[in-house]
Amino acid sequence: MIRMTSLATLALCFCAAAIAGEATHPKTPQLTGLAGGTAKLICSGHSGDRNVLDYSGMVYDSPRHKILAFGGGHATGNFPNSVHEFDIATLKWTQLTEDVPPSAHSAENAVKTKDGKKLGGIRWKGKIRAGSRHTYGGLVMIPGTSLMAVGTSMEFVGASSRMPGRGKFFRNNYQGGNGLWIFDPVKKEWKVSKKAGMVSTYGAGACDPGQPDWVYHFSPKLSQMINWKTEEVKKLPKMHLTGYVGVTYNPDDKCFYSAPCSSKQPKNLKIMKFDISKKSWQTLTPTGDAPKTYDIDIVYNRPNRVFVCFSAGYASYYSPKENKWYKLDKLLDKALDNGPMRHHHVYDPVNDVHIATSSRWKTFAFKFADKPGKLPGTSEKK
After folding, report:
1. How many domains does the chain fold into?
2. Which residues neighbour 305 within 8 Å (Cβ) at sequence distance 6 or greater?
3. Quick check: 35 and 370 in contact, CB under 8 A?
4. C-beta atoms surrounding 77 within 10 Å
């Protein structure tokens, strides 16, 4: 088993890069001059397996100014477990790792603990790799690093007809595997915790920049914070975040926010706020023109101090200051919707744009506002 503690040295290197931070990255010419409230198609596709986008997630790698995508696909025939990267400087997608074929998912290749517990990965071509899974809002970047943690476990089998024993060995050796997996995009390598039981299915991951050694995991079955260096675990109060929702950090009040909404709800009815210092949830009932937030993230826009999301082709935003939803009246693109987009939405602070990927790897840039604090419910960052 590969030890997680070997990541600590790497994290220190990335922290130094992060201090220099976003200011060291040049702006992308194709993203400058985009008018507030408008969206632009910046990448029309990618040669990578489109099934990677199936109920998966994306995260922003701040030190490297890139976007990482992983997950999805395990309910399809292709079962891809590759990691993909979007370079914001070139506006191009690249596949970083190979997809492990379903035929390789034998009992012997499964990654387990010393006492035989499933960790949710596979040994292939001399390396360990996280198995395909629906990541939803479970992906999270460890603060100050380019390390991506996966805060969800393996789910059901996919591509069973091409697996050993028609999926029998997958169910016995992979499904439910719940180690904490971390990906290093520089080395293009996965590492995993020595312990099982770190995460569960349908989870949401989050990190507090003030506690960079800890990864938060929230799900209907399990909520806890995990020290990714020492593997210490601290239990947290459970909160069923309906609708495969994500959890987002607000740097202004140092709390996590979430916008749960089931598939049957026509629109969002509540905002969940997690006080990190008190380790407690608070239910907020917002006013305003709420969107349907089923299976999408609300992404923080720091210059305006609001959370932005896309639904039915429109952009909406939630104001923590007013506890109110607002909707921009311009139709952006019908591809920016819950179904094709899901958790493929990040904020790029260098170019001050939101970047979202829909089906078939179509990637858009959206400019929220020309000037911070001018739209209702917004205010300039301190």
Report:
1. 1
2. 252, 319, 320, 321, 378, 379, 380, 381
3. yes
4. 12
Does some domain include residue 28? no
pTM for this prediction: 0.94
pLDDT number for residue 299: 98
Nearest residue to 118 (alpha-carbon basis) of 175, 79, 186: 175
Interior/surface letters 122-154, b for 16+ CB within 10 angstroms, e for the rest = bebeeebbbbbbbbbbbbbbbbbbbbbbbbbbb
Strand order in the sheet with 92-95: 57-61, 66-70, 83-87, 92-95
Q: What is the pLDDT of residues 24-40, one digit of tens each?
A: 899 999 999 999 999 99
Q: Residues 207-219: pLDDT tens digits?
A: 999 999 999 999 9
Binning pLDDT at 50, 70 and 90, where does residue 10 land?
A: very low
Q: Which domain holds residue 311?
A: 4-13+36-367
The CATH number that applies at residue 67 is 2.120.10.80
Measuring CA to CA, which residue among 349, 324, 312, 275 is closest to residue 67?
349
The answer to whether residue 216 is domain-embedded is yes
379 part of a folded domain: no
Torsion sign across C-alpha atoms 87, 90, 96, 101: positive
DSSP secondary structure letter of residue 343: B
Residue 31 lies in a domain: no
Do the bridges between strand 139-141 and strand 127-130 make them parallel or antiparallel, or are there none, so unpaired? unpaired
Poorest-pLDDT segment among 15-24, 107-116, 220-229, 281-290: 15-24
Percentage of the chain lying above the pLDDT 90 cut: 86
